[in-house]
Design goal:
By secondary structure, the protein is an alpha/beta fold. The chain has helices at residues 58-62, 70-87, 96-102, 115-121, 146-149, 161-164, 168-174, 209-217, 221-226, and strands at 13-18, 23-30, 33-40, 107-111, 126-131, 141-142, 155-159, 180-184, 200-206, 228-234. The protein folds into two domains: 5-87, no CATH class; 96-234, Rossmann fold (3-Layer(aba) Sandwich), CATH 3.40.50.
Length: 236
């Protein structure tokens, strides 16, 4: 993934980081303050607990974006999300659900079994869920069926973890007939300049860094969520 030079225009310092549950996080600091980025820790895909980073630096952590070591990838995308959130100061919110109703959307695919999202969508749409992790596959299809089925949906919501596991481009290509392609979840904090093929990004802006860090260190989703503001933006 190529990072726009203007996103790296400052000399960012990594203040704190951890490969943790449920989220890997990286806290950076620049001229305008601190920024916290997260990425879902895909522990089921960790096969090697060694890492090749030579030091704790932005340059080293960003190498993880191209690594096939899952710990390095999680830290890489958490770093990229921290940089993205640093630059996303003013966010214009959109209601993608209202837009979908207005456009006559009927069939919706959710890639990644995000249960609260699925429950909300099922109030208005015919929903099919795909999930890679067998432990999370309750009332969901295996992701092996995405290739065959995704072209038939009007809208597709994709978990931000697709960035980390390298499947986002494949999903977007197969969902080419969908009017709405939404990357969603805390891992979807990425800057819209770095994304192609999507219509919306739905994620979380950390507004209380210290409280968010406490939640992440304790492995508490509820504490972390209470320190954030949800947003949905259009990708131009």
């Amino acid at each position: 993934m190529n990072i726009c030079s203007d996103l790296l225009s400052e000399d960012f310092k990594i203040v704190d980081f951890s490969f943790a549950l449920p989220y890997t996080y990286v806290l950076i600091e620049g001229e305008r303050g601190r920024s916290l980025g997260v990425a879902m820790s895909l522990v089921e895909d960790v096969v090697d607990y060694d890492v090749s980073f030579k030091d704790v630096s932005l340059h080293e952590f960003l190498k993880g974006l191209k690594s096939f070591n899952m710990i390095e990838r999680c830290l890489g995308f958490a770093t990229l999300n921290a940089i993205s959130q640093y630059h996303m100061r003013e966010i214009e919110n959109f209601d993608v659900f209202e837009e979908m109703v207005a456009e006559g959307v009927e069939r919706v695919a959710v890639v990644g079994n995000i249960k609260p999202l699925v429950a909300k969508l099922r109030k208005n749409f015919d929903v099919v869920v795909f999930e890679r992790n067998p432990k999370l596959r309750c009332q969901a299809l295996s992701d092996c069926f995405e290739y065959e089925l995704l072209p038939s949906f009007d809208a597709v919501f994709v978990s931000g973890t697709a960035l980390v596991n390298g499947t986002l481009e494949l999903v977007v290509e197969r969902a080419r007939n969908a009017k709405f392609k939404v990357l969603i979840g805390p891992t979807a904090q990425i800057h819209p300049k770095l994304i192609r093929g999507l219509t919306h990004l739905a994620s979380m802006k950390v507004v209380d860094v210290d409280r968010a860090l406490m939640g992440l260190k304790l492995g508490s989703w509820r504490i972390f969520e209470s320190a954030c503001e949800k947003y949905t933006i259009r990708v131009k």
